[in-house]
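Morning - guanosine-5'-triphosphate inputs below, output right after.
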Amino acid sequence: MWALKHFKKSPPPSPEYDKPWRPMDWKTNRQTFMATINDFESGNKDIDTLRVLLHGPQGAGKSSFFNSVNTALEGRITTRALAQSAFTGRSFTLECNTYKIKKKAGSFYPFSFTDIAGIHDDSSTSIRTEDIRKLLSGHIKDGYTFNSAKTIDEDDQKYNRNPALKDRIHCLVGVLPASTVSLMDGEVIKQMKAVREKARDLGIPQTVIITKVDEACPLVHEDLKKIYTSKKIKEKMEACSYTLGVPISCIYPVKNYHRERATDATMDVLILDALQNIVNFASDYVEDQVSSG
Ligand SMILES: Nc1nc2c(ncn2[C@@H]2O[C@H](COP(=O)(O)OP(=O)(O)OP(=O)(O)O)[C@@H](O)[C@H]2O)c(=O)[nH]1
Ligand SMILES: [Mg+2]
């Protein structure tokens, strides 16, 4: 009895590491990122735009991620890609849309984002993997509306019979929500892996954006700067790395702009860090393709 009364419960383990496991300098980074991104060139004089494809489950935050990049670069809230306001059970983005972002001086940044419909857990209603392979290799032009019942016809006016390096996708970005990364449907994982394999066969570099970190971890919800000390977020990133087979170093967690009414320096740093890495991968790919003929 005495022993029970005086038995001290050990405190619950802290949800936070003492030190960040990925270094991030929150104060100075935004200017540094902007300077680098503003001076960025495609890495090849024949290719003025590096093409990035956003791919992932429906409602993962793909359109919101593009809007977030646009917002972080422009320094004001923008919503060019329509994101869904609430979950509807259907993919909100239907057409294949490619977006470029204007610099203040009127020219464009040397990269674009292609936003397509998300993967459904029923593969018969998702964009066909074969069509995504064609998109990766540059056969599908912007504005094409995918048909889950059949792949693009070679006579379709949106079909490009002879794509050049500039028409290809130069970096594949998987987008997954942190909150459901460990609960992902087997069919969705299968479709994502199939696309990753196609990209690998074409030598296209790949990264992953983990969205909705605010919904996955209360600490991060309170203070986004805790993203790299949060045990929960590290756990989610490890689960994502394991499930998809992507190295952790190529996974970037972000909180997307979705209902904010003003920009936020901490959100911008995470978004711009991810953007800089994506664009560097794409540029390396283009350089390698040219040097290997
Ligand atoms: N809390 C939170 N919500 C987010 C975040 N990113 C996106 N959302 C919300 O998630 C929902 C889906 O976002 P979308 O950008 O439309 O997702 P999508 O991947 O483009 O979806 P489909 O086009 O339907 O495949 C929207 O209601 C967004 O407001 C985020 O980082 N945090
Ligand atoms: Mg969308």
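Note: The chain has one domain: 42-291.

O.
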